[in-house]
Amino acid sequence: MNKYIFVTGGVCSSLGKGVAASSLGALLECRGLSVRMVKCDPYINVDAGTMSPYQHGEVYVTDDGAETDLDLGNYARFTRSPLSRANSITTGQVYDAVIRKEREGRYLGRTVQVIPHITDEIKGRILAVGKDADVDVVIVEVGGTVGDIESIPFLEAARQLIHELGPQNALSVHLTLIPEVAGGELKTKPTQHSVKAMQEQGIQPGVLICRAPALLDESTRRKIALFTNVDPDAVFTSYNVDTTIYEIPLVFFDQKVDQVVLRKLGVESRHADLSAWKSMMEKFRARKSSVRIGIVGKYMELHDSYKSVYEALFHAGLECGVGVELVKVDSSKLEGDVDPDTLLGAEAPGGAVDGVLVPGGFGQRGIDGMVRAARWARESKVPYFGICLGMQIMVIDWGRNVLGWQDADSTEFNPDTKHPVVSLLEEQIDVKNYGGTMRLGKSETDFEPKTKPLAAYGEKTIWERHRHRYEFANVFRKEMTDAGLKLAGFTPDGSLVESVEWPDHPWGVGVQFHPEFKSKPTSAHPLFREFVASSRDHKAGRS
Ligand code: GLN
After folding, report:
1. 466 lines ligand 1 (CB under 6 A)
2. Residue 466 C-alpha to ligand 1 middle, in angstroms?
3. Would you say 222 and 196 are in contact if contact means Cβ atoms under 8 Å apart?
4. Nearest atom, ligand 1, residue 388 CA
5. With contact defined as beta carbons under 8 Å apart, do 62 and 72 qualify?
6. How far, in Å, from the CA of 361 to the mean position of ligand 1?
7. What pTM value is reported for the model?
């Protein structure tokens, strides 16, 4: 029988519940177990697709095209759990399904209620993730903080499942905060209250993970244990690391988190192979220099808006032996008569950037600034990586500044342009309905011979995920390529351009897909690796 672990959080949000759940998943995988990760989000949105990146951070896209919470990105970076629509459960989805069933008359005239109908729907979805024979452990992260009204149905579903599956098969892992007050004293009271709130929901945590400034001492752990009915050896610390979040699996391993969890679940402990995580940390410590990468985008205030991109750059740095310093540039600041040199070149605060990355995005604001950044990188021969919108920006720059079409644009930003170099496909225009016209999820790209992406992947055919609506306009293919732009990759039938490349440039590559979703600290994505490597070489060449 497979085992279930429910990870909840108390005291306050942003304690790193996602990282804790993922780190536990990573450790169980190191012990040879097959792990699945699930996120329950108490919000009423059906998915994260409609949520603003300013408010909620990036939308993480799965192979099957689900637009999910960014926590799934953590799962993908730490574990090998397959991730699809099934791994992200929101209140919106649950109610949507229950209301549909009610309209279809499937509840046979009964009153439809939170308990049992909503909770049964949640339980059914959680159990479905663990149904494959090869699954050993399902880790279910319940979003929000105990005590929130929204998360009550999810906690109630967890309570019922723990009871039905039995204590040998289901475990509650609760994350809390141990704050430090003036004088440096650590306070356990918020943790005691948080566990009480769990107990009021009918759930007795079996393991506590306490977020604290430093490793808790024996007496503090005993005190917490005494007040919470948790074994003293099951009270752990997630202390602040000054290295990287990817050290957390090792921090947990040193405290035997995985051993205690497996003991409680009655799983025989197998030998743990931590070599991948240890060698990742060796690479982290071996980095000697750093590169400055200019990220020119529009959602710059919130780090989470481009989370997977930033993480992928960090992973690439590990593989290239360099730290990556992020230079976040709001593209609207590059507009008007601002000289790009003052923000990206030698005159920029902190000095010139060694590479420019334009990430994905929607809407008109800041586009001209991105085009100016692309032109600057192209003409100054600075490595450039364009992701989704960032590739479309390369095409607009080529139209405007190489072919001399001043109005070259995407019809997303200027529907009336005479040079719509990026536009909707014919069949999308016919639909005249934006909902459902987005290209989402994984699809195939074939690279052309002698191109940089082909060299990076080492494979002609690759699969990557999409999330966009507009495409390279095929009517301009001839003029664009006659003027030298390389079309580096296509869909297998050749109908859509998936990648472009600048000629006579150290590394100027754009891709219509989102490679950042597949990068891991233990294996960097090949495009990010090559981009960071060329930025490193560019820096070396300059000095
Ligand atoms: N806004 C562009 C489109 O819809 C790019 C989207 C993106 O970068 N994810 O095609």
Report:
1. no
2. 9
3. no
4. 8
5. yes
6. 5
7. 0.94
Strands 170-177 and 207-212: parallel
Contact 362 CB / ligand 1 (< 6 Å): yes
Residues annotated as catalytic (active site), given as ranges? 388, 514, 516
**Quick one: 475 exposed, middle or buried, by C-beta within 10 A (0-12, 13-18, 19+)?**
exposed
In angstroms, what is the span from residue 80 Cα to ligand 1's centroid?
Answer: 28
Structure tokens at 156: 């109630």
Which tens digits make up the pLDDT trace of 305-358? 899 999 999 999 999 999 999 999 999 999 988 888 889 998 888 899 999 999
Strand boundaries in 99-258, DSSP class E: 137-142, 170-177, 180-181, 185-186, 207-212, 235-239
Backbone CA torsion sign across 247, 41, 89, 53: negative
- Residue 119: half-sphere exposure toward Cβ, Cα within 13 Å: 15
CA gap 530, 525 in Å, rounded = 9
pLDDT for res 190 = 94
Q: Whose CA is nearest to atom 5 of ligand 1?
A: 389
Compute the distance from residue 377 Cα to the ligand 1 centre, in Å.
21
Q: State in Å: Cα 342 to ligand 1 middle.
A: 28
Does residue 221's CB lie within 6 angstroms of at least one atom of ligand 1? Answer: no
3-class secondary-structure state, position 98: helix
Contact 383, 374 (CB under 8 A): no
Ligand 1 pocket, mutate which of 298, 364, 388, 497 (most atoms under 8 A from CB): 388
| pLDDT band at residue 239 under the 50/70/90 scheme | very high
What single-letter amino acid sits at 180?
E
The verdict on the CB of residue 526 being under 6 Å from ligand 1 is: no
Cα 321 to Cα 533: distance, rounded to the nearest angstrom: 9
Atom of ligand 1 nearest to the CA of 387: 8
Which of the 8 DSSP states describes residue 267? P
- Find out whether the peptide bond into 190 is cis, omega within 30 degrees of 0: no
Q: Which helix (H) or strand (E) holds 385?
A: strand 384-387
For atom 7 of ligand 1, which residue has the closest CA? 360
Mean pLDDT of all residues in the chain?
93
Among protein residues, the one whose CA lies closest to atom 8 of ligand 1? 360
Q: Write down the pLDDT at residue 427.
A: 63
Question: How far is Cα 75 from Cα 344, in angstroms, rounded to an integer?
Answer: 34
Residue from 470, 498, 514 to probe ligand 1 pocket by mutation (most atoms less than 8 Å from CB):
470
**In the chain, what are the domains?**
3-264+274-279 (3.40.50.300), 287-542 (3.40.50.880)
Task: Average the pLDDT over each of 42-51, 94-103, 485-494, 508-517 and give the range with the smallest value.
Answer: 42-51
Query: Could you give the angle at the alpha carbon of 143 between the alpha carbons of 30 and 468, nearest 5°?
Result: 85
